[in-house]
Amino acid sequence: MITDSVASVNLKGSLQITHGEATYGADVVLFGGLMSWISPLRGQETVDLRDCILDSTTSELEWTIIFHDETFKFVAENPSVAENWKSGLSQAMALLQEPEDDLDEEGWNEE
Questions:
Q1: Long-range contacts, 36-41 (Cβ 8 Å, 24+)
Q2: Order of strands, sheet of 22-31, starting from the edge strand that comes earlier in the sequence
Q3: Is the pTM of this model over 0.85?
Q4: Distance between CA atoms of 75 and 15, rounded to whole angstroms?
Q5: DSSP labels for the chain?
Q6: Fewer Cβ in 10 A, N or C end of the chain?
Q7: 52: closest CA among 34, 38, 37, 39?
């Protein structure tokens, strides 16, 4: 379930992406716990941050997301852009991991 606090973590920007042997530039959007972009090889790519592992220690400009068995490396144009993305991703992932105390297993309020 995507909460209002997770939906408030929004980012958009042009990043360099490496996936397998392919490296390309793309406009990337982070909204509501989903990260999305257009790949020239596979079309629309969307990853759910609930199913991701984030490694932001690669370098100052880079971070890696592992989504299921696929690895995506992202590179920003400068350190401040990279820090904004790393911070936003970390914040969104932390918010997605917080339990919803008042919801049952199917996401309904228990009343």
A1: none
A2: 43-48, 34-39, 22-31, 10-19, 70-75, 62-67, 52-55
A3: no
A4: 6
A5: ---HHHHT-EEEEEEEEEETTEEEEEEEEEETTEEEEEETTTEEEEEEGGGEEEE--S-SSEEEEEETTEEEEEE-SSHHHHHHHHHHHHHHHHHHHS--TTB-TTS-B--
A6: C
A7: 34
Q: What is the pLDDT along the chain (111 residues), one digit of tens a residue?
A: 445 566 677 999 999 999 999 999 999 999 988 999 999 989 999 999 999 999 998 799 999 999 999 999 999 999 999 999 999 999 999 888 866 555 555 555 554
At position 68, the amino acid (one-letter code) is: H
Give the tokens for residue 67.
Answer: 């989504």
